[in-house]
Amino acid sequence: MRIETSAGPAEIELDEVADLAFLLVMTHGAGGGVDAKDILTVRDSALAAGAAVARVVQPYRVAGRRAPGNAVAQDQAWVEIVTALRDRFPGVSLVQGGRSNGARVACRTAVELGARGVIALSFPLHPPGKPEKSRRDELVSVGDAQVVVINGGSDPFGIPDPADAAEVRVIPKQPHSFRTGFDVIAATVQPWFGRWS
Predict the structure, then answer these.
(1) List of residues 6+ apart from 72 with CB closer than 8 A
(2) Of 66, 67, 69, 52, the residue nearest 6 (C-alpha)
(3) Could you tell me the fold of the domain covering 2-194?
(4) Which residue ranges does the record assign to the KANL3/Tex30 alpha/beta hydrolase-like domain (predicted)?
(5) Which of 125, 126, 165 is nearest to 149 (CA)?
(6) In sequence order, which residues have a C-beta less than 8 Å from that of residue 145 and are 6 or more positions away?
(7) What pTM, to 2 d.p., does this model score?
(8) Under 8 Å CB-to-CB from 91, ≥6 apart: which residues?
(9) Which residue, among 81, 66, 63, 136, has the nearest Cα to 103 in the 3D structure?
(10) Under 8 Å CB-to-CB from 38, ≥6 apart: which residues?
(11) For residue range 137-157, what is the model confidence (pLDDT) as tens digits?
């Protein structure tokens, strides 16, 4: 499906279930797509827990750009997308998330959208080699939402402090884009989906 936003159209890959427990809205990293294996792993776990799952291709990617541009405009478009999806699935809990840049968007908008939880795959704590440019404030700006972070142990973008999230799971020897450890990702998110449904 397609949702029109103030930043242009977004494309949504939507998986629905018969007995709806919650809505999960996930998105990609800056230059990536919604078919990344870690995103699909989270989708499959959420579907098994009774979620409708919307994987969002953000407007800048639909337009063919690799960089998200202005964060305020990106967040506004995200709020419009999620609001439209919640209108389609009223009365259930919202969980949102994404990988890398998408995790940042999910954290930054969690309070405004009333998300119950955030799945942050490869949260980019800082630019590579620049730990002084921390994005911790985005990670802890989620209000009452619980953030589950899953990062690779060799991620050059850094690893959040366990005190800054409900759970921080580190998959040893994995870089920013996971090559293995998808079973760990599934095992990490499953109990949280049970709590949030």
Answers:
(1) none
(2) 69
(3) Rossmann fold (3.40.50)
(4) 23-163
(5) 165
(6) 110, 111, 115, 116, 117, 118
(7) 0.97
(8) none
(9) 136
(10) 99, 121, 122, 150, 178, 182, 185
(11) 999 999 999 999 999 999 999
